[in-house]
Amino acid sequence: MSGGYLLLATILVPLAAAGLLVVTPQRFPNVVRAIALAAAATMFALSVWVFVAFQTGSGGYQLTLRWDWIQNVGILGAHGISVYLGVDGIAAPLVLLTGIVILAGTFVSLKIDRRNKDFFILLFVLVAGVFGTFTALDMFVFFFFYEVAVLPMYLLIGVWGSTRKEYGAMKLTMMLVGSSALIFIGIFAVFTEAGRGTFDLPTLWGIHYSPAFQKTFFPFFMIGCGVLAGLWPFHMWSPDGHMSAPTAVSMLHAGVLMKLGAFGIIRLGIQLLPEGAKFWMPALVVLATINAAYGAIAALSQRDFKLMTGYSSVSHMGYVLMGLATLNVVGINGAVLQMFSHGVMTALFFLCIGALYDQAHTREIPAFSGIAQKMPLWAGFFVLAGMASFGLPGLSGFVAEFNIFVGLFRTYPVLGGIAVFVAAITAAYVLRMFAIAFFGELNPRWASLKEISVAESIGAVMLCGAIFFMGLWPSPFVERIATAVTHLPGVTG
Amino acid sequence: MIPLDQVLVFSGILFALGVYGVLTRRNAIAILMSVELMLTAVNTNFIAFGVFHRPSLAVGLVFAVFVITVAAAEVGLALAIILRIYRQRTTANVDEVDILKW
Amino acid sequence: MVGMNAAWLLPAIPAGAFALLLLVRNFLPRKGDWVAIGAVTASFVLFFFVLHDLMTRLGPNFHGVSTGFTWLKIDNFVLRVGFFTDPIAIVMLAAVLVVSLMVHVYSTGYMHGDSRYGWFFTVLALFTAAMSTLVLADNLLLLYVAWELVGICSFLLIGFWWERQSAAEAAKKAFVTTRVGDVGLLIGVILLWKKVGTFDIQTVLHAATSGQIGHTYLTVALLFMLLGAMGKSAQFPFHVWLPDAMEGPTPVSALIHAATMVVAGIYLLARMLPAYMVITGLGTLIMVIGMITAIGAAVIACAQTDIKRIIAYSTLSNLGFMFVAMGAHALTGGMFHLLTHAFFKALLFLGAGSVIHAVETQEVGDLGGLWRKMPITMGTFVIACLANAGLPVFSGFFSKDLVLEGVMHGNTPYYVALLAWVFLSGIYTARLFMLTFFGPSRDHHRYEHAHESPPNMTLPLVVLAVLTLLAGWLALDSVGRALGFPGGVGEFVFVHEPEAYRFSFTVAFAATSAGLLGVLATMYLYWGGGPERARRFADYSPDVYALIRNKFYVDELYQAGINYGVLGLSHAVAWFDRYVVNDTGVNGTAQLTGWLGYRLKFLQNGKLPTYALAMIVGVLVMAIVALSMHS
User: Cβ separation of A493 and C162 shorter than 8 Å?
Assistant: First the structure.
């Protein structure tokens, strides 16, 4: 039980920090920064603690905490809605991911000087939502935090964004909230069908729903959560939203929020409705393959750094969904690894792009040339992220993608072949971008570019560390993930 | 004791009167009064069902008290609004007050 | 006693050097070049201990020794880091470590004063580690990992002077082209794993040869694998990246793009040869691919004017030759040619580097007469050229003859084509050294400034020249036995049965005559008045000359394919995404909602009784529906 307070703390620390920031006067921006940094560092420490405290030997749901909130009222029975938190092997790495990305994002955001207090308040509310979703074991609480994580995005993009920010913010919010409606329908359908008067997820997972029901309602979760995971053809919010979002928000969004979608498919889809999952997975794997190939091909001809990275995210989330759709241990393992890997890698991408944009005020790839001469360290980080993205061995992307490929070859060999080929396309667009913008002769227009700042470097080094850590020593991740994945219903060996 | 169906007939008539009033009257105060009639009809039903079906529990009565409370608050609010409208437009005719649209 | 179970140290030492250099190279004296050199030297010394141990264990039932540990385990899916030492690996390892050490030493001179001197050695150390891992890998997955790592080292080193746009483009081209092949390799690896359930090479080979894998399945898997080998070893049609890779510093070309990385494809085929031998048609396919590459590249090499590109096409040509050897299942000859080729081609490149260092141009048209200025470079370079042309006593002679003998049996057309290849090799090598070192100097200014390279550059040249002269004799049984091997190379590296060395006079005579003919004919063309005669020769048929000069327009073809095919598809997808998915799908939904609101807003007329009526009608309808459903 005592461990449960750890998870509660991951949610309460950002909320408390947000509360503290509310009462901090706007005229002390440095105090705001100090509070934000301290809070983010605490979250990072807590997330590491959660990851380490997770016992790989025993598996299951650990660090649980359960407070009944509403019960025996109206339609609700015992444990109707409870604050029920706990992590399994899938959630633990994702909590760690959130901790890493928020700390790196906070380092990057220190330089924001327009209403930085409000920015951090919204950012921390969002993070509280993310932590809550990853740790929730109650369907109602899950959905609540899911929405909390999505909504602050509108203001964050609309106020601090760039490049058609109102459009991007609106589109993102409308699509995500629209998809939430589907999840909502699914949640209530399951609640009613179960007839136990509880939103308690472990109870609901233990019930066998009729195949017809499972097949009917799995798509609600698949598409509802899939939209947040960038499922084709509902991915359009991703490139445009990322293009408009401020750096830290892009990092958090592509790095962590998109994983909420995939995580939702596991928690609500595969775990609740395994037979529905089995029925619909061929459809999902086809859509996901389109995701991967289409995102990569579209990225080849993008001219904006962030648009390219947005499409790259679509492509990589396609891998995640493909891994999930294999419904075998190795594939889903790979999918979860890829969630982490893509999280840190794309956060590093956006961090670097943000660092450049703040100086250059343009993100047109062809407008740059040879800027690695002016920003060698920055280019180093960017190249590392790029290499992780096309799955270079020794970096996180390889471990993840390889597992996904192996999983795919077990179930869908042809699509597995396509997925492997997409990795080559990924190399092509990443290297194309490097060759155009970073290398070659220095365009004199950029002679005054400066090296990445210290705060940004710290964030980047953290993300690089995570990339190397997982790439060289994946066992801590795999041990945790495997404990959960092997016990997912309907998942074959 | 009065049988349940007689009470229901009574409340039905009361409700129908209220509906008729809301639909036909153009004076805001009269509409408000008709709404109160409908609420009274509902209250009557609550009390009647409560007494007849669950005499041991006071659920129906409790609900009626809630409705009265809400209705009182509502009337307070509505009258205030109507007063403001009358002050501004020197009319309480709802047909002439139609700017709250699209 | 340090023995074969210490084989893991061979890659581990340079890997440690890489990690050290990556972090602290800027704080070390001389930017830490001595760390990298020391690490490679240590590996090199260790190599002899491993070799010695291997020799003592060699016997009829010996296949190799495996050591390692588990890296990742998911359920029953195990990824291992394991090292397997056997004669094939030892031969390749010898090439890797010798050339790597020589290139390290040479680079202290060639790269002296470069702004990224430390970084150069950092990547070289990583490359050495990755290449040794590739050679020693006991499972296909580790092999793939190392395969990718040497690829990225190649990328980093081709693009070492990335301030030049051409270098950046070449690096990208090299990586992406090989990566397309690697897709095939990875698919092949996973397909084999799916059937056999392990990545372990020996188990996979056993499964393949004992017929556990269906023939169709095995063919598909091996074909995919072949793609990987073709990409890495720059076989037609993946060959386009290798000449462009000459944008990298010359020591890199010697190490990666001549001696070691590019032969990884041949090494893979050699490793998997028992499996390839199961499927009959595959050998012919490999031979055809190799032959196209060998002849085509040799022809192109005759008309190039960039000294490094000539050598690059020569490398391509030799890679094709080795492919033919593998296709003919001539493992001994192929691996032996791999070794000798590593020495003499590295020597050629390092010699070319010495020339470039001296005259700062790569155009052979601007060279000439350098033998007076650079005697050591000239001497070693000519030795390498003669080895490349396969003239007797030089190492190329022995290895080439071994391959020719292997091909001759039952593959007469290929044998004849290879003789033509030998002739062509003679032509371009003779042209190369004639234009570079002999004849009058064509750029007087450069000639005046030319000078012999410093000792740290000439020493590796001399060492490699000695190896080029001596390595070939290893083919002879008596020499092999004197050195402690069970016999000549045929009794050391073989597929099924060891074979004693047989000198075939017919083959030796035919090949030597073809080579000598090419050399002498070319020397006649370029002797005396410089390239005048050769130019007249080219003018006989300008169209053919232009075709060869422009490398059969393969690069242009690819560029068109990329511009119109790949990028066209990308633009189409991007357009579809923007205008169909986004503007129609997403914005269309938003606009439809707005339009509906506009059309339906008359319902919201602001009149209270209307709303009240709507409510009441609604309640009535719901009540009727509810009642009718209830009853």
Answer: no
d(CA A255, CA C269): 41
* Maximum distance among all Cα pairs of chain A, rounded to whole angstroms: 72
Q: Is residue A469 part of a domain?
A: yes
Separation of alpha carbons A247 and A349, rounded Å? 10
Evaluate if pTM is beyond 0.90: no
Q: If you measure CA to CA, which chain A residue comes closest to C70?
A: A475
Helix axes C215-232, C140-158, angle to 10 degrees: 20
Q: Confirm whether A492 is domain-assigned.
A: no
Q: How far apart are CA C519 and CA C389, in angstroms?
A: 8
Residue from C306, C258, C309, C255 nearest C106 by CA:
C255
**Best CA proximity match to A347, nearest among A185, A462, A179, A204:** A462
Contact: chain C with chain A (3+ CB pairs below 8 Å):
yes
Residue A491 inside a domain? The answer is no
- Quick check: helix, strand or coil at residue A355? helix
Beta-bridge partners for A138: A200
* pLDDT, tens digit (0-9, with 9 covering 90-100), for B40-80: 999 999 999 888 887 787 888 888 999 999 999 999 999 99
Nearest to C330 by CA among C228, C424, C401, C420: C401
* A365-378 residue pLDDT tens: 888 888 888 888 89
Q: For residue A493, is it within any domain? A: no
Q: Which of A292, A295, A265, A297 is nearest to A281 (CA)?
A: A265
Q: Which two structure tokens, joined as six digits, stand for B28?
A: 């805001």
Domain residues for the domain of A215 are: 3-485
Run of H or E residues at A62: strand A62-70
CA–CA separation, A406 and C232 (whole Å): 23
- Alpha helices by DSSP H, listed for C367-411, are 375-389, 395-408
Residue C1 has pLDDT above 60, yes or no: no
For the segment A114-132, the average pLDDT, to the nearest whole number, is 90
A418 touches chain C (CB under 8 A): no
Total of domains in chain A = 1
Count of residues making up chain C: 631
Q: For residue C612, which residues of chain B lie inside 8 Å, CB to CB? A: 22-23, 31
